[in-house]
C-alpha cells in the first residue's frame, strides 16, 4: 500500500491535472499511508520533532525572500552588482559569489 501511495503521489505531481497544486497529491498520499497503518501517531510525532527546526528555517527563509522581493531588494542588488562588474562576466560571477557568502554568514 505504501508503494501505491508513493507512485500515485508522484504520478499526480508530474501529471498535474488542471494545474493541481503539489500539496494536494502529497496530502492524499500521506493520508493513504496513515490509513494503511504503515505509520502511526507516535512515528509522526517523532518525525515532527526531528524536522521541526529545519522546517522552521525553510519557512523563515521563504518569508524573508518574499519580504525582500516586495521591497525591491533583489532588483536593487542585481543592478548594483552589474554596475560594479563593469561589463565583465567574471567579475559578476565573483561579486555574486561574494554576495552569497555574505548573505549566508549574516542571515
TrEMBL record:
Chain segments annotated as transmembrane: 24-42, 54-78
Annotated keywords: Cell membrane, Membrane, Transmembrane, Transmembrane helix
Subcellular location: Cell membrane
Gene Ontology CC annotation, any one: plasma membrane
A Pfam family assignment: ArsB
Membrane topology: Multi-pass membrane protein
One Gene Ontology MF term: arsenite transmembrane transporter activity
Main location group: membrane
Listed name of the protein: Uncharacterized protein
Amino acid at each position: 500500500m505504501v508503494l501505491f501511495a508513493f507512485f500515485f503521489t508522484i504520478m499526480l505531481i508530474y501529471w498535474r491535472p488542471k494545474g493541481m497544486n503539489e500539496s494536494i497529491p502529497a496530502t492524499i498520499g500521506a493520508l493513504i499511508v496513515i490509513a494503511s497503518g504503515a505509520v502511526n501517531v507516535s512515528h509522526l510525532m517523532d518525525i515532527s520533532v526531528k524536522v521541526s527546526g529545519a522546517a522552521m528555517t525553510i519557512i523563515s527563509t521563504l518569508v524573508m525572500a518574499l519580504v525582500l522581493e516586495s521591497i525591491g531588494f533583489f532588483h536593487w542588488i542585481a543592478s548594483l552588482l552589474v554596475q560594479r562588474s563593469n561589463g565583465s562576466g567574471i567579475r559578476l560571477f565573483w561579486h555574486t559569489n561574494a554576495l552569497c557568502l555574505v548573505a549566508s554568514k549574516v542571515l
